[in-house]
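Follow-up to my earlier ticket, as requested here are the two runs.
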Amino acid sequence: PQRAFGDLPTLPVEERTQQLQAPLARASLVTVVVDGKSLWTSVTDVNISDPSRMGPSAWRVEATLTLQPFWREAATLTSPVMSPGSVVFAQWAGSTGDVQDGVLRVRGPLTRCSITGRGGVSFERALTAAQYVYVDVASFRAWYSTSATAWTPTGTAVLLDYPAAGPLVLEPSAAGIALSFTGDGFVTTGTAAETTGVTLRGGRYWL
């Protein structure tokens, strides 16, 4: 990146240097547009060069940005409620990056739940049809709520476990994110509000 201060010829070199470096040092996100689609990723580190004089009143600073490898689409998606068994979250079909901000909302009735795919996550807690456990997959934490919209951590923490294959990773394929949703105490007949289900919320990511 280059910024010229031809209109500030009287500033001392130190102040010019600070004005050149400050916007780069504060960089936290990078946004690109690919095929008309806006994608963003986080900046993890910034390495800024010493300024070099380009002319009597122009200076140049170069910055190297280290970025997260996954680029996120702007929209946050929420899947339909999926019944127990083999489930495919088709809204993530075709994306190439693991979902970095995915939250699973598990609705009772149930007494034990296991969700597996690439790795897995499980918990034991008795839930009625009006109760939920939310699982933040990336941070491997969960919380209990009676609200259907408690997507951010709140309420009572729930202890999680994972299998020998490791913690769950939300890895998409051409068809979507395929998971197995099993457990005990499930109810699969009745109205939609009375049956056990799982929902996924998060962004689509690209490598």
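Run two:
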Amino acid sequence: YYQPLIQLHKKSKKLYKQAKIYKIVVCVLLITLLGDQGSIMAEEMNPDINPSLIEQVLVAIKLTETEGEKQPYQTLHPPVELYIYGTDSEIEAKVKQFNEDGFVTKLKNGRQVVVAQALGAYGLLDIDFNRFAKNAGIVDFDFRKDEWQDPAVQDKIAKNLANQYFNRYGSWDLVRIAWFGGPERAKKIKNGDETITTMPQNVQDDLA
């Protein structure tokens, strides 16, 4: 059952790329032929900057994060070690806060890391889950005590986060980079300081 679903997802990603290229060509032609009016029409047609496509984006993120899972909203992803960034004082403060919140931190290659785990259909990190819930208007939520597996909770958090990223970066491609590679990488790519090919291979695979 799940193999055809995976093949369909891969086919959908290919068709999405083909449709996107076609729309970009059409957008260029509209701008060339119709000037300002064409620019307005092109902006409405460009899928990368169209905010109304958020539901399709969330479906794509969910498929990437939990492809083949029978119960995606209950998925426990493998733990990962994440480097903690900032100045020495900022890192020290973050380590203290992580420890107070019950997360494990340790030194790795001379740098501080925190052990985190992605949860659910959208791969939301446990170290961010409560903050993301609060930002989405879910008051006094604690993923350790409350029902983080609730699809309505995850959908609301993911939609709010995707909207925040889109408002920040102005592009669904950059939203995907922020989601799978981190906001700092999306910021660097937007500013031209980094490219997708310089990102870790697993992130490139998610964005392929």
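The only thing I checked on run two: The two ends are 24 Å apart (CA to CA). Let me know what else you need.
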